[in-house]
Specification:
The complex is a heterodimer.
Chain A lengths: L4 E4 L23 E2 L10 E6 L2 E8 L1 H16 L7 E6 L11 E6 L4 E2 L1 H6 L6 H18 L2 E2 L8 E6 L2 E6 L6 E2 L5 H24 L9 H20 L2 E4 L4 H12 L2 E10 L5 E11 L1 H10 L5 H17 L7 H18 L3 H4 L4 H19 L5 H11 L15 H4 L9
Antiparallel strand pairs in A: 1-5, 2-3, 3-4, 4-6, 5-6, 7-9, 8-11, 9-10, 12-14, 13-14
Helix pairs in contact in A: 3-5, 4-5, 7-8, 8-11, 11-12
Chain B lengths: L3 E8 L9 E8 L4 E5 L6 H9 L6 E6 L2 E2 L10 E3 L12 H11 L4 H15 L14 H14 L4 E5 L7 H18 L2 E6 L2 H7 L2 E6 L2 E6 L1 H6 L4 H6 L6 E8 L2 E4 L2 E4 L2 H6 L7 E6 L4 E3 L8 E10 L4 E7 L9 E2 L5 E5 L10 E6 L5 E4 L8
Parallel strand pairs in B: 3-8, 3-9, 6-7, 7-8
Antiparallel strand pairs in B: 1-2, 1-4, 4-5, 9-10, 11-12, 11-14, 11-18, 12-13, 14-21, 15-20, 16-17, 16-20, 17-19
The chains are: A alpha+beta, B alpha+beta.
The complex binds adenosine-5'-triphosphate, adenosine-5'-diphosphate and magnesium ion (MG) (2 copies).
């Protein structure tokens, strides 16, 4: 007997309309959205429901609940991860046989699986930027005590973040939240990440989806390097003599620059007061995005925020308002620069990229235009030129995620264990 | 290949009072298949993760061979965690899927091919080596994952409940495959499960843990025949052993209306703390149905009969004039008796049973330790 159960924080009756009596693998095309995915052992499919895009994964009850719970906790801890919506259990097929449970997550809008990013003709340092993003994600997860257990490119999603990428966790199945990680747990995660990334790049090589120039092992090693640098910058104890107090500010500025705020800094002075030791105790990612949010109400990724804040500074200088309050200037910048620029992009083209990403690209385009015409090009003019010369020819990243449709099927096969 | 030694190894999680693993002493022989078993939360996984280098060791040490690895990073311990994650790469051949970690390590091509072929032979994958994973069945894919670990030739394999995500049928199949594969490879293996049947069928030896404390290590037979304490007696065996605590009078335990004679040495070993009582255990198959009035026999009232074809079990309660008893098997609340499936009593009947000579287990009522 069927006894379908939907466990969700905010239950949605629309979920009941999905064909739960059919194995996910056989769901009809009219409910599915053919978006590219990473490699996975479980069956995973995307579904459009009431204007939203959902990701559904079939797995055993126990694992579905476990992953759901972990993703919820990660969400509360504000680390970048996909957001869980529900677990569906008690499924029975038309033949009366029980079917596996399903975990439903929100499809991460504008996200790019690594296969899509690598298969696009992007800048040559794409790999480096992906690795940087993954290193930041892994450090953030480790800082909150999350042991991943299966770090890989397939288990990560990437979003454009100004001229870089931001990485999100997509598969928490093997993870665990601890009070604090041991160095062994961190080292194991990192080593596994390296092995998996190299394996995934070998795979792209074998499928002729990767430029032959790309050095897979070098990229794997780069992750270890980047992670280690960042972890040290965020957690290392630093000692200096008492007359070098400026090094406290300097450390904080360095962390801000890396995108982190220092919530708590331990400062210890030795007994005779000649040396000082500092160590950050609480660091929070999102330094720039928090600042931008406070000033403008815009909620964007950290590097996008950094870019927007820089533009805000230039605008302030250009409009000769260095003596006005930052809050007030920010409000005017939003009204007279950011919003008109986005509005200059035709509505139907606007959904190709997030607004902050659009603004970032228009800024880049303006720089390039100004170089060519040897004068300062105003933003609205730059926006019009950008739409014509660039945006029109760009794939729609919210819907197609950068892959031509025939390519989207390459990853269709799921490797079930 | 190597031995593994836990030497007073202790793990105390930050913010907790009691160690999750408390002074574990365990020596695992070269090539041995050792199963760590116990109820949920007893510290099995923690022990395994200490060996893997994922958990700090707060006291004692861990050795692989003669090498103290207590402070060695996971990747430098020469161990392999099997089945943790086994994403197969669709564009790569089965051979490349198995050997890519060696390629990363810079192993010469010819040697990689040789090791992969050897592993494939053992895993019955030879004919698939040059195909893509798409061509493989679910079971074969799992064997490729196993192959990945094998080609690295680690000193020790670690497996933490590797079968838990399989359905019942595949679980029994894979269980046999893993056990026989391990014997052929001869690689020291530490295997964690909460399932005592899995432990009994797979392990050369079994280590039972409870509340972070090692209870007993031994071969499946030893654990079954000579449980060192009440916990092991009750945990190992399915259906579980009948265990109860009884008054001792004139050198015998008063089980129901019967006097079950105790060995001299057992009676001598009783202490004041035991309060004139012993704990007696006997397995369902250690009982004979006998005529009423047989010396040492007691009565069981039948509540339910479970017939399994070759076997039948009576679930019942001990009849006693001297008041209620706590005699029961596992968490069933009942006494379990294996009976001849051709002579099955009815619900409500009373049967007369006696413990077969030499098949009772006697434990101190105070400490739970084995006396007989
Ligand atoms: N919420 C989501 N938004 C966007 N993409 C998603 C989402 N959930 C899953 N995906 C895509 O589906 C793929 C497979 O999902 P997932 O990693 O959870 O499956 P899995 O079977 O558990 O994988 P593994 O074999 O690594 O255990 C991911 O690589 C990702 O590309
Ligand atoms: N990271 C942790 N922090 C605190 N306590 C833990 C942690 N991991 C496990 N424990 C506790 O340690 C004990 C042993 O856990 P575990 O080794 O996972 O047991 P098992 O594998 O036998 O189920 C349990 O009481 C569990 O709650
Ligand atoms: Mg995955
Ligand atoms: Mg997974």
């Amino acid at each position: 007997m069927e006894n379908l159960q939907i466990t969700a924080a905010t239950p949605e009756s629309a979920l009941l309309d999905l064909p739960w009596r059919v194995p996910l693998e056989d769901w009809p095309n009219d409910v599915l959205a053919a978006l590219p995915r990473g490699i996975s052992r479980h069956v995973v499919r995307f579904v459009r429901l009431k204007g939203r895009m959902l990701a559904i994964k079939e797995t055993r009850d126990h694992y579905a609940f476990r992953e759901y719970e972990l993703l919820r906790r990660l969400h509360k801890l504000e680390v970048p991860a996909v957001v869980p919506l529900a677990v569906v259990t008690g499924r029975v097929g038309d033949d009366g046989e029980p079917l596996e449970a399903a975990i439903i997550t929100e499809h991460l809008a504008f996200s790019l699986p690594y296969r899509a990013v690598f298969s696009q003709a992007l800048r040559p340092d794409t790999a480096t930027r992906l690795i940087d993003a993954l290193a930041v994600l892994l450090v953030r997860l480790h800082l909150v005590g999350f042991y991943w257990g299966d770090v890989s490119l397939s288990n990560t999603l990437f979003r454009r973040d100004a001229d870089r990428f931001a990485a999100y966790l997509v598969d928490a199945e093997t993870g665990d939240l601890h009070r604090e990680l041991t160095s062994g747990q961190r080292a194991y995660d990192l080593d596994l990440a390296r092995t998996n990334i190299i394996g995934e790049l070998f795979d792209l090589e074998a499928g002729e989806l990767l430029d032959e120039e790309v050095d897979a092992i070098g990229i794997g090693d780069a992750l270890v390097e980047r992670y280690t640098e960042l972890w040290d910058a965020l957690t290392k104890v630093e000692s200096f003599s008492a007359d070098e107090r400026w090094r406290v500010d300097e450390r904080i500025r360095r962390l801000n620059d890396l995108g982190f705020d220092v919530g708590e800094l331990a400062i210890v002075t030795d007994i005779d007061g000649t040396t000082v030791q500092i160590q950050p105790k609480v660091v929070d990612a999102g330094h720039h995005s928090r600042r931008l949010l406070r000033l403008t109400g815009l909620d964007v990724q950290d590097n996008q925020a950094r870019r927007l804040l820089n533009d805000l500074d230039s605008w302030r200088a250009a409009t000769d308002r260095l003596n006005d309050s930052e809050q007030l200037v920010a409000h005017d910048w939003l009204l007279h620069s950011f919003e008109p620029t986005i509005a200059a992009v035709p509505r139907d083209l606007r959904k190709k990229l997030e607004p902050a990403q659009l603004f970032h690209e228009i800024l880049d385009h303006r720089w390039y235009l100004s170089q060519r015409v040897h004068r300062d090009v105003p933003m609205p003019e730059a926006a019009i030129s950008y739409v014509d010369q660039v945006l029109r020819h760009r794939p729609d990243e919210q819907a197609v995620l950068g892959l031509p449709p025939e390519r989207a099927h390459e990853d269709e096969e799921t490797l079930l264990g | 290949m190597a031995t593994v030694t836990f030497d007073h190894a202790t793990r105390l999680y930050p913010g907790t009072e009691r160690p999750a693993v408390d002074q574990l002493n365990l020596h695992i022989e070269d090539g041995e298949f050792l199963v760590l078993v116990g109820p949920s939360g007893c510290g099995k996984s923690t022990s395994l993760r200490m060996l893997a280098g994922l958990e700090d060791v707060n006291g004692g040490r861990i050795l692989i061979g003669d090498r103290d690895v207590t402070d060695v990073q996971p990747k430098d311990r020469d161990i392999a965690m099997v089945f943790q994650n086994y994403a197969l790469y669709p564009h790569m051949s089965v051979a490349d899927n198995m050997g890519f970690a060696l390629k990363i390590a810079g192993t010469p091509k010819a040697e990689i091919r040789q090791r992969v072929e050897e592993a494939a032979k053992i895993l019955d994958l030879t004919e698939y080596l040059d195909r893509k994973p798409k061509a493989l069945s679910g079971g074969q894919r799992q064997r490729v994952a196993m192959g990945r670990a094998i080609v690295r030739q680690p000193q020790v394999f670690l497996m933490d409940e590797p079968l838990s995500n399989l359905d019942a049928k595949l679980r029994v199949q894979t269980r046999t495959q893993i056990a026989s594969l391990q014997r052929r490879l001869g690689v020291t293996t530490v295997y964690v499960t909460h399932d005592q049947t899995e432990a009994l069928t797979m392990g050369d030896r079994i280590a039972v843990l409870n509340k972070g404390v090692l209870q007993q290590v031994g071969t499946p037979r030893e654990m079954y025949d000579q449980p060192a304490n009440v916990f092991v007696a009750g945990f190992i065996g399915s259906p579980a052993m009948n265990i109860g605590t009884f008054q001792v009078k004139d050198g015998a335990a008063l089980v129901g209306n019967a006097q079950v004679p105790l060995e001299r040495t057992v009676v001598d070993a009783l202490t004041e703390a035991d309060g004139g009582k012993v704990t007696v255990g006997f397995r369902p198959e250690s009982l004979d149905v006998v005529g009423s009035g047989t010396a040492g026999s007691f009565q069981v009232e039948v509540n339910l009969v479970e017939e399994l074809g070759s076997d039948a079990f009576v679930y019942g309660s001990l009849k006693s004039d001297v008041g209620a008893s706590d005699l029961s098997a596992g968490d069933s609340d009942q006494v379990i008796v294996r009976i001849d499936p051709r002579e099955v009593p009815m619900k409500g009947d009373t049967i007369n049973v006696a413990i077969k000579p030499g098949q009772s287990h006697v434990f101190s009522a105070a400490t739970g330790n084995r006396l007989s």
